Amino acid sequence: MGEDHVFLRACRREPTEYTPVWLMRQAGRYMEEYRDIRRKVAFLDLCKSPDLAAEVTLLPVRKLGVDAAIIFGDILLPLEGMGFHLEFAEGEGPLIRNPIKEREDIERLRIIEPEEHVSFFLKAIEIVRRELEGRVPLIGFSGAPFTLASYLIEGGHSKDYSKTKGLMLGEPSWWHLLMEKLTEVTIRYLRAQVHRGAHALQLFDSWAGCLSPRDYEDHVLPYSKRLIQETGQQAPLIHFSVGTSGFLHLIKEAGGDVIGIDWRMDLKVAWERLGYDVGIQGNLDPSVLLSSHQMIEAHVQKVLESGGNRPGHIFNLGHGVLPETPVENVIFMVEAVHRLSRR
Ligand code: CP3
Fold it and tell me: Residue 188: which H helix or E strand, with range?
């Protein structure tokens, strides 16, 4: 594959014949083939089996006609090598049995060597690259330091992130040490993915929206910025977050060739605010995919109109595909994006 695939051109804000589209969580429980595999294999075991992870990665490419593949895995996979006990309890989401409580827990945290500690993930990238035969580019990814820190401190998902904020504001020197270490791990992790074949990268700062602009700027931005500076030259990087419409300018300042936004803000307004010197990714509400084809088409049209046919728009949902989504609606949506945006 050359560097001229629509998705990669859009990452560079070059004109394309149509708007490229892929979906966060495009391989997942809404697909029967995925559920069949999961009946036999637990989620973590699936992530750790390169052949199976590669197969799952390719499902949506074959079935949906999306313009990019995203390697199957999870943002929490590197945490085990760092010394944390990770579990995915059925229907409960991720759980860390030994979350950070003391400074020693942070001091103990190992800076992983990706080739050693997440070799299965890198192996899956290699397999997918081979099997894709240049059809579409492959996206590698990582959690951003803040979002990873929130899992390590809360031990799982949280409503208010009070423990994370407590440590951030109450123990600044611990916070700094933790964020430094997570930044270092993430840099190594993303570089290793590009080295093994990822064409582009997405950084997930999914929970940054729980912060005030001021705290994001003081306690998170410097780390994300360094990380993006040190990996962004290797491949185009999409910087995604949720609920950060109140400080999009800071997300931009942290960096990224493309800024991924959720659906709570009009894409046109978001792009005006960001400025046209970055690309934008988004932002259909995932729930729209639970409605009728007619409704889906109308919403796709609105998002495309907000993008204004400007080079640098990558169509996506504002967050991941919901498990109850009918797969035929996703196929219809991808087709509608291509049809309605063709220039
Ligand atoms: O997008 C893709 O298709 C690639 C694979 C991928 C998964 N998770 C698969 C997954 C990616 C890129 C992620 C990222 C991820 N993981 C994020 C950032 C994106 C976001 O949603 O904001 C976060 C916060 C996680 C942590 C995580 N992993 C949670 C909160 C959960 C449980 C939530 C749920 O939907 O059950 C997971 C599990 C997970 N990751 C599943 C999948 C397909 C479901 C596991 C299953 O099969 O039961």
Answer: helix 172-195
Name the residue ranges covered by the structural domains of the chain: 6-341
pLDDT 10s digit of each residue in the chain, 343 long?
A: 556 899 999 999 999 999 999 999 999 999 999 999 999 999 999 999 999 999 999 999 999 999 999 999 999 999 999 999 999 988 888 999 999 999 999 999 999 999 999 999 999 999 999 999 999 999 999 999 999 999 999 999 999 999 999 999 999 999 999 999 999 999 999 999 999 999 999 999 999 999 999 999 999 999 999 999 999 888 999 999 999 999 999 999 999 999 999 999 999 999 999 999 999 999 999 999 999 999 999 999 999 999 999 999 999 999 999 999 999 999 999 999 999 999 8
User: Which residues lie across from 87 on neighbouring strands?
Assistant: 95
> Ligand 1: which atom is nearest the Cα of residue 157?
30
pTM of the model: 0.97
Among 71, 74, 202, which residue has the most ligand 1 atoms within 8 Å of its CB, making it the best to mutate? 74
One of 30, 34, 67, 151 is an active-site residue; which one? 151
Token pair 């949280």 is at which residue?
158
CATH of domain 6-341: 3.20.20.210
Report which secondary-structure segment, H or E, holds 251: helix 248-254
Q: Considering just the CA atoms, what is the radius of gyration of the chain in Å?
A: 19
Q: Ligand 1: which residues within 6 Å by Cβ?
A: 24-29, 38, 43, 70, 72-76, 88, 93-94, 141, 157, 204, 206, 320
Residue 12 is a catalytic residue: no
The rounded Å distance from CA 94 to ligand 1 centre is: 9
